[in-house]
Amino acid sequence: MTEIVAGAAVALLLFLGFLGVNVLPLVLIGVLLSFAYLLWERRGPTAAGRVETPVRHRVGFDEIGGQEHAKRELMEALDFLRYRDRIRQLGIRPLKGILLAGPPGTGKTLMAKAAATYTDSAFVAASGSEFVEMYVGIGAQRVRELFRRARQSARREGKDSAIIFIDEIDVIGGRRGAHSHQEYDQTLNQLLTEMDGMQTTSDPLVLVMAATNRIDALDPALLRPGRFDRIIKVDLPDKEGRLHILQIQTRNKPLAPSVDLEQVARETFGFSGAQLESLANEAAIIALREGKDRIEQSHFRDAIDKVLMGERTGRVPSREELRRVAVHELGHAIVSEIVRPGSVSHITISPRGNALGYVRQVPEGDTYLYTKDQLDGQIMVALAGAVAEELVYGNRSTGAQNDFEQASRLARTEVECGLSELGIVDAENLPQKLLDEEIRKILSSLEIKTKEMLERYRPVLEEFSGLLVQEESLDGDAFRAQLARRDALSHAG
Ligand code: ADP
Ligand code: MG
Ligand code: ZN
Prior knowledge:
This protein has 18 helices and eight strands. By secondary structure, it is α/β, with parallel strands linked by helices. Strand 2 (122-127), helix 6 and strand 3 form a beta-alpha-beta unit. It binds adenosine-5'-diphosphate (ADP), magnesium ion (MG) and zinc ion. Residues 64-67, 104-110, 211, 245, 248, 273-274, 277 line the site of adenosine-5'-diphosphate.
């Protein structure tokens, strides 16, 4: 078809040229038109190809860990699709849009897929960023296309409902007029028009689900009744949730009997579902690298380090340097055990990311509030690295820069939260000089305390640092056992 048109056009041009007509403008127009056509043609099929995600593996709610509350809320909302006849009979306004709000990697996409399985609906997905193009009108056209595809897939699959999932809805659903680009507005308007036109009686019934991590940035028009009027919050998992996700993500993996997923869950405070998935995968890769056919607890430990700190670096410190790093890290670890017994999870001196070594602490449960004692304790743990170096070597190194930043940050928190000697302060109007002085006071008095604490452990520092250089890393339990043995000896003696 294209070839025939092009051929005819060339023939016509030749004929006109033959008649002595100036064909140059026509040639230019022709070139422009065919260029535009090519663009359009290229766009058409790709747009269609992108909006549809064929669901091969059907995701069920049982594959989503944690999120019990969100799951329950979502299932309740979905009952309107499962019992649509009763809903219609009672004259209940149909639910058209469900918004899943929460940080990345918490399972929002999974939930939308599970919703399609649960309601036996066709599923089509698109991401907000796919609607944004340089050409005005393309976004709106893609929205229309998406809704058409949803209905088509439902019919083709013999289902009487379809779920449309729009990820990153904030990209198109930002406040209208907030940006100068009218493309966004047109796309958003088209989405609203499509949703307003959706009928309860229509077959197939369509439900729009969307996800965002910036709900505050959404145009209020999107959240009005009849649009996304059901908002479900999907948060980072708590410890129970993390355990559940880890169980799900290791279902297909051989675990050694020693593996304690509960322990892993405890040490992964703040991890999202996606990070836990990658953790389980990393653990398996480490096991493979070591030639093991089961995943062991130590593989999980190294995988946590990797997810938190990055790959191990290839750089090899000198033996003297290693010894100093060991002393430094032991300082952190000893004080950590004194201020919060049982808190050391793992000490290592193998360089990773841009750290030479580090002590990983068991997170303080799922805690959101801290007391002054806890903050003081954390500051002392941070200062203890440099203090230990000073005790053993009589001087400090540059390795403690991060520690000092962390200690200052914690001290600032104390001042700003009214926990310092200044009492309650207006953090915003506090003179910088006063703040600095108070921070310095807190740090220097805690530094003295830390020194007193570590003084008694100087022999331990000397002795353990050799051990740590040899072993490269020590588990919290092994470290505590050694410490207890030392303590018993020194009490006896
Ligand atoms: P979001 O859409 O919230 O960014 P996804 O649903 O895309 O998150 O999650 C990405 C991947 O992370 C999933 O495919 C799954 O492997 C894992 N994941 C995330 N959250 C969970 C969860 N709650 N339970 C189990 N796996 C999860
Ligand atoms: Mg997602
Ligand atoms: Zn340190």
